[in-house]
Amino acid sequence: MSVVGQALVGMELVDLQAALGQAEPSFRARQIYDAIYRRRVTDLTAISNLPKNLRARLAEEFPLGVPQVEQRYDSVDGTRRYLLRLSDGKTVETVWMPEGERSTICISSQIGCPVDCKFCLTALMGLERGLSAGEIVGQVLRIAAENNLAANPGRVNVVMMGQGEPLLNLPNVIKATRLLTDPAGIAIPTRRITLSTSGIIPKIEELGREPVRPKLAVSLNASTEEQRRELMPITRKYHLKDLIEACRAYPLRPWEKLTFEYVLLGGVNDTDADARRVVRLLARLNAKVNLIALNPGPGIPFETPGAARVASFQAIVKGSMPCFVRKPRGLDVYAACGQLKRMESKEKTHLGLGRGVASPSTNPMTHFTASRYMAWMSGRSHTSSRWPNVE
Asked: In this predicted model, what pLDDT tens digit does every residue of 271-284 receive, in sequence order?
C-alpha cells in the first residue's frame, strides 16, 4: 500500500522505513525520526544531514503533519486555549496550562465526543471523527513549539482530557503514547501522561494489556447507578458496579494509582451522603480522587456548588483516601475541564499569519467576570469563603 501523501508526524521508525522504501539505507529513517520528534523541525528541507535530493523528495511526497494555529485565546491566569486546524480543514482544541517550571498540555483524542455527558460542553458537539496518532502527537508538537517547551520534556505533563473519549480511539491513542514517550524522540516520561475515560469497560481491560500506556483516570461523577445514568448515559451500557470491578482488576504499575474524577454539580451529586457513598464505592482501591467544581457554560443546566459544599465533600472523602480539588484553569476563555466546544469570541485581535488571539475581555463568560475568576484563582470564592486545598 502506498504511503505517499501520509503525514510524517504519526509515523514510528518502522513506518518511516517502509515509507522510504529499499532505495534508502535504513539509517535515513532514523535521521528523519530524530529530526521530527527530538529536534522538532518545522521545515523538512532544513534537515541538513539528509542528502538534498531526499529532502526534496520528502517535501514533495510527505506533509509534515503538525496542525496550524487557527485561533488562540489567552486567559488571565496564563492558560492558552488553541483552536488547531488539521490537514482536512477540521479543527480541534488543545490547552496549555503553565505553572512555574512545569506545564500541562491538555490534548484531544477525537473531534467532538459521542459520550453525551450532561454537564460537558463538548458533548453538545456530538462526534465528528477520531484523530489519527499523528494528529494527537501533532497537538503536543505544536504547543511545545509555540511555548518553547523543547528544552525539558520531563517537566511537561500531557493529559488526554480534551475533546473526545480516548478509549473509543484506543489504537491511535496507544500509538501516540509510544511516540510521545520514546526516549529517542519526544521523551515525555510515561508517568507524566494521563488518559481520562467515561468508563468503556472492555477498552479499560484492553488498555491494561498494553506495555506502553498512559496512567488511567476514570470520570466517576456520581455515587449511585441511577444518578450516573442521568448524568452519563454511557452508564446504561457500562454499569457502575461493573466499572468499579474493572478498575479493581486493572493492572497498576508499582508507582501508579488510579485517579477518579468527580465533577460536583450543585444540589445534584454534591451532598455529604454522596461523598460517603463515593468512599464506599472506592474502598480497597489504590486510588485518589480529584474533585472538580462544575465549570459552567451556555447550555449546561447545572450550577457550580459553593466553596463550603466543596470543602465538606472533600473532607469526607479525604478521611479515607487522597482527595484534591482541581483548581480551574482558563475558565474565562472556555479552556477549563468540560468547556471545549470551539467557543468563539465575537471580537478578535489578529496577529501574524491569520492567527487570532482573543483576550478574556473580548470573550466574557456568562457567569464569571474576570475579577470573580481571579478571586477564585487566588483561593477565594465570590462569597469570600476559603477554597479547600487544591492540587
From this structure: 999 999 999 999 99
**DSSP per-residue letters across 320-380:** TS-EEEPPP-SGGGT-STT--S----SS-EEETTTEEEE-GGGS--SS--HHHHHHHHTTB
Whole-angstrom distance, CA of residue 85 vs CA of residue 240: 37
- The model's pTM: 0.87
Contact of 339 with 125, CB cutoff 8 Å: no
136-171 per-residue burial string, b: 16 or more CB within 10 A, e: under 16: bbbbbbbbbeeeebeeebeebbbbbbbbbbbbbbbe
The Cα 87–Cα 95 span in angstroms is: 19
* Cβ–Cβ < 8 Å for 195, 166: yes
In what order do the strands lie in the sheet containing 68-74?
323-325, 287-293, 258-264, 215-219, 193-197, 156-160, 102-106, 91-99, 80-85, 68-74, 355-358, 349-351
pLDDT in tens, 202-237: 999 999 999 999 999 999 999 999 999 999 999 999
Q: Quick one: angle between helices 170-181 and 133-146, nearest 10?
A: 40
- Residue 187 is predicted with a pLDDT of 95
- Catalytic residue from among 106, 120, 247, 337: 337
Is-contact 180 140, C-beta < 8 A?
yes
Phi first, then psi: what are they for 387, rounded to 5°?
-80, 150
Residue 240 has phi, psi (to 5 degrees) of: -60, -45
Catalytic residue among 24, 70, 93, 135: 93
Q: Which amino acid is at 134?
A: G
Alpha carbons 233 and 134: distance in angstroms, whole number: 30
CA 42 to each of CA 46, 142, 163, 214: distance values in angstroms, whole numbers, following the listed order: 8, 10, 25, 27
93 is catalytic: yes
| Model pLDDT for residues 337-389, shown as the tens digit of each residue | 544 455 553 333 332 333 445 444 443 343 444 444 445 444 433 332 333 33
Among the listed ranges 16-20, 132-136, 180-184, 361-365, which one has the minimum average pLDDT value? 361-365
Whether 247 sits among the annotated catalytic residues: the reply is: no
CA–CA distance, 340 with 326 (Å, rounded to integer): 17
